Structures are given as C-alpha cells and as structure tokens.
Amino acid sequence: MSVLPTATKAASEVLAKAAIATGSTYKILYFAIHGRGELIRTLMIQGGDKYEELPVDWAVQKELTPFKCLPVVYETAASGETLELSESQAIERYLARKYHLLGANAWEEHLVNRYFNSTDAAQNSFGTSVLGVQGDARVEAANTYYKETLAKWIRLHEEHLKQNGSNGHYVGNGLTLADYKTALLVDRLLLLHPKGAEAVPLSEQATPNIWKVREAVHSQKHIAQWKKSERCQELDQGTLKMFKFI
Ligand SMILES: N[C@@H](CCC(=O)N[C@@H](CS)C(=O)NCC(=O)O)C(=O)O
Q: pLDDT for 64-120, tens place per residue?
C-alpha cells in the first residue's frame, strides 16, 4: 500500500500564502497514461519545477481522494505546508496562474479560457466519438471526426491565431494555457490515429498557425527534454494500450 501525503490543515490565509509562494515541489497521483495528467505534468515541467510520480494503488487510494478520482497533486510549499489539489482543470488553471500563463489581465484571461474551452470540447468529442468506439468502426468514426468536428475546430482556430498575428500564440506574444492545451491536443490526435483512417489533417502545410503553436510549446527547453524522455514514451505506450491501439 502506498501512503499519500497528508494535506496541511491550516487557516485559509496560511494556505493561500503557501499557494502563491514560489519554490514548491509537487507529487502527482495519476495512472501511467497521458489522459487527464498530461497537461498538469506539462505545466509543472515547463515551469522547471521538480515533481514526482506517486505509485498508484487505486483500490486503496480511491477513498482517500477528494472526489474519488484522479489526478490529484500534492504541492509542498517552501514554507512546509502541503496543499492537496484536485479536479484536473482546477489544477491546470491553478498551475497556469502560478506560472503566469493566464494572460496579463481579466480580458486576456477570458481569451485564454475561451480558446482553452473550445479546444477542450474538441478533445472531449474525440474521446467520446472516436476512442469510445471499438473495433473496425473506429476508423469510420475517426474519419467523421476529422471531417466534421476537427475541421471546424481547425478553421476557427487558424482564423483566431491569424488575427493574433500568426505568431504561434493565441493571446499576446507569449505562451499561455491555451497554447499548451492546443499543442497537447495535436500530440494526442497524432498519437491516437486509428490504422486505416485518413491522415490526421494537422500539419505544417495544412494548419500552419496551429502547427506554430505546437512548435512554440515543443521548443521550450524542458518540454523538448520531456518529450524525449523514457517516462514520456512509457506514457505514450500506456495511452495506446489503454485505448486498445496496441
Ligand atoms: N472531473 C474529474 C474526472 C476525473 C476522472 O474521471 N478520472 C478518471 C481517470 S482519467 C479516474 O479517476 N478513474 C478511476 C475511477 O473513477 O475509479 C477531473 O477532471 O479530474
């Protein structure tokens, strides 16, 4: 049985102080797949923060988690308090705020969130309409997804990115949570391509602005190292197995 870190019980002001401080270390509890852990891992990695993977013993741990599901992240602040973070998107936005990836003001934050949400919808649709389909029918489901949902997402996002100056970012001149979300959706679609389906309609030639976003994310020093790491390859394999691609 693996023991989980104990969240510090303290007044909200104490935890809030710990939450805004820098120099935290992180432990993530999540299965050996990308899934809902992928963006969280990516955000911690791009920030150059140390994080550790806790061994999963789900039958035992489930009851100990806040919503009986994963991911859960345990953050230990430099001042010693441990914060228990749960619900994937709440964790993502929390980390994005810490790493200044939510834009410079409320308006930019709204823009980041709208691109994020739109990409999240395209990702969820892939999950239900393609990954949720088993056997030979998955090829047809993927083709339909590429032609309909993905084609629409591509058209709209290429246009929005163009309006921001085709600079490889959705908002302003720098990386935000929206950029990471898009880069990971592209990675996921390229990884989870059903054999026999049409090519994923995402490439430097076909979708130059979306591709530029992915390149901007991938060219971050820590992300480039992560993508080549053994652990990232293991998670690719775990993800492929989970969805019966291998
Ligand atoms: N709304 C939750 C959903 C989490 C979720 O469904 N997690 C799945 C893995 S991706 C899980 O914990 N499955 C195991 C279980 O439900 O027992 C979130 O976004 O964090």
A: 999 999 999 999 999 999 999 999 999 999 999 999 999 999 999 999 999 999 999
**Residue 1, domain member (yes or no):** no
CA distance 200 to 13: 48
pTM: 0.97
Q: How far is the CA of 40 from the centre of ligand 1 (A)?
A: 14
**The CATH number of the domain where 38 resides is what?**
3.40.30.10
pLDDT tens for 25-34 read: 999 999 999 9
Evaluate whether 207 touches 2 at the Cβ level (below 8 Å). Answer: no
Instruction: Find the 179 Cα to ligand 1 centroid distance in Å.
Output: 24
State whether the beta carbon of 182 lies less than 6 angstroms from ligand 1.
no
- Asked if residue 35 has its Cβ within 6 Å of ligand 1, the reply is yes
CATH code, domain carrying 139: 1.20.1050.10
What are the backbone dihedrals phi and psi of residue 241, each rounded to the nearest 5 degrees, phi first?
-70, -45
47 lines ligand 1 (CB under 6 A): no
CA 170: distance to chain centroid? 16
Asked whether residue 45 falls in the same domain as residue 112, the answer is no
Domain-located, residue 6: no
Q: Say how many Å lie between the CA of residue 38 and the centre of ligand 1.
A: 13
Same domain, 83 and 157: no
